[in-house]
Design brief:
CATH topology: Rossmann fold
Strand order of the largest sheet: 2-1-3-4-5
Structural class: alpha/beta
Number of domains: 1
Order of helices and strands: EHEHEHEHEH
Number of helices: 5
Helix content: 40-55%
Largest sheet: 5 strands, parallel
CATH architecture: 3-Layer(aba) Sandwich
Low-confidence stretches: none
Mean pLDDT: 88
Length: 124
């Protein structure tokens, strides 16, 4: 079963998204801060198959995490989730780090399902 690291500080979003991902057949690791997300990627870099990353975190801008994740594991796919607009510098960071998708919050079941199935099909 592929493993997704879900990084979001909103507990409601965390819980609902985690249930959705598990329903779709993924294993889910969760982090509510950038610091915790970095720890998980470092400690389990061979286990995390994809990162679902919120840009608004209490301790760091999610955009700042992208190059850190890529330095730890350059092949890790990242999907950015945001409820706000991002600027040109953020867009440049997304392009430079090969961000696989940007999902605007609130996203619906079909959008996240289709995006994940395209990027990370469940293993039998």
């Amino acid at each position: 079963m592929p493993t997704i690291l879900l990084v979001d500080d909103d507990s409601l979003v965390q819980n609902v998204t985690k249930e959705l991902l598990e329903f779709l057949g993924y294993t889910v690791l969760s982090a509510t801060t950038g610091k915790k997300a970095i720890e998980i990627v470092q400690e389990q870099k061979d286990m995390v198959d994809l990162v679902l990353l919120d840009l608004s975190l209490p301790d760091v801008n999610g955009v700042e995490l992208i190059p850190i994740f890529k330095k730890i594991n350059e092949k890790i796919p990242i999907i950015v989730c945001t409820g706000s607009l991002f600027n040109d510098d953020d867009a440049d960071t997304f392009a430079q780090n090969n961000i696989k998708a940007i999902l605007q919050k609130p996203f619906d079941f079909d959008t996240i399902k289709d995006t994940l199935l395209r990027l990370l099909p469940p293993r039998p």
